[in-house]
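hey all, quick one before standup. I had two proteins in the batch that finished overnight and I want to keep them in one place so we stop losing track of which output belongs to which input. First protein below, input sequence then structure tokens straight from the run.
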Amino acid sequence: MSNIFTDFIRVYAQPNRRIDEVEAQWITWQLLGPHGSYHVPVVIRCAPAGQYVDIQYGSGKSPEIVDFCENHVGYWRYQTIWGRHFDEGGTQDEIWRDDANEGPRRHCRYGFDEVRVITTGERPAVGEQERWQRGCDGSWRLPIAGSYRTGNDRYAYVGSDATPTTKPPVPTPTALPTPTTPNARGEALAGIDPPWLAPLADEHPGVTLIEYRWRGRVVHRAREEDEEWGRSWEHRCADDWDNCLDPDFLRFVGATDLLVSEEVYRRDDLAPGR
């Protein structure tokens, strides 16, 4: 297998239109084309008021999104299209708008508003001045606004030509639930802000688990897992559009209160792979 890409597509209707379930299916098949979704389960989610549709699929063998952007976006039906893309050969998601080929791309930044840590000792070894709160389960929690970059893989055993009716397999016990389908293999975090949190994320000797949460939902988890090759430190990723902090996306949806500092975005632009 090669070219396993996970794509999260959001198509916005023109302001005077709505996308219903039937049209959402039509859009999905336009993206899938004759080859279907390559090793990624297909998920379709319509906004409650029909202002957009979210589609998850694997574009590894289906280039039809290029024609969809050219022929349908910006005309009477669809106002704009956003895409978040993960290549299993890389480590971080990219985000683009309106043109899958020529549209500007950048690393995608995701947000969290709380961290939960289980330690081998007492308090977490970072943020000594922060107001860590001890939970009844022995974990430590810290409400804090932060963000990171990572890669969201949704590979599953669905074959090379999955469709909306293809059922994904039962997830493994270590998979992390996401708003679409479980993440069974994740990527480490990069560009963590605030930077002093970074040491906890990658095999810190005083930590056995760390969760990053967004409005109560676990969006990233790192802990030791029992794998086929033994016990190892593993990441699981559950980011979605709700915690996407890309600056242009936030301005488009009118959520500028979630923007992070310009310095953080500048570092993203200078990160390797850009």
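OK second protein, same deal, sequence then tokens:
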Amino acid sequence: MFTSKQQLIGGMGVDPEIAAFFVDRNVPKDNRYWKGRYLYIARGTGYLFIPLFFDLQFRAGMAKEDILDPSYVSIMEKILDYAAKFEFGEISFTDQIAAIQTMIEPLAKHTWLMNDLREYFKVEPLKATGNLGLENSALNRGDALLYLLCVNQAPTDLIKKVIGYWYLLVPSFLLLDDIMDFNEDRKHQEENALSYYGYDAAGVIKAIETVERNFKSLEDINPLLGEFFQSTLEHKKKTPYFQHILNN
């Protein structure tokens, strides 16, 4: 399955040019994140978040020509390549971050963010500090992509605004995925954000409340996106799997 331009534009409120750019983009060669993929925006949160995050950058006030610049997008793709290599056990977390920092440092326009990220990634698990991170450390596992913002020429206030948008979008995806995967993750002792709330019905309810607050905030930024997420969540809550974990 794939995500179409019309789904992004009409269903999620994504800017038409941004939607077309990513749906039509070729899968990057020799990139672990897209290995075995034939479509740039496959039907899955790990790919869907890309046009949504870029649309949020645009909505925050960043210039469209800057965020769709091929060099900017290529940096994002390379960060995801390193992230996938870590995810699949090909490199360590330390090596992942070191490689990203080496790539970004000569390009950075926001040294304050570069320095903040360098300090943030020194300690595991990642802890909320300043503009970075959430108290639920498992929801910070996608934060390496924030290095991308170091190279954007937007003013500091816009960079901070986009970081705030990031923490509404990506952790919500991660938390929903973790709710769906928590039995499997517990079995294999893998990181799961639900551990912060509790592996029971009460914990799932707290997690859902967190997601719903994020979706409400996103609705204020992009009404169609907020409605899409809320509708998706309501559908999930009616599935037998959700009903089972909510009643046990």
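Flagging for whoever picks this up: The CA atoms of residues 62 and 154 lie 6 Å apart. Residues 156-188 form the longest helix (33 residues).
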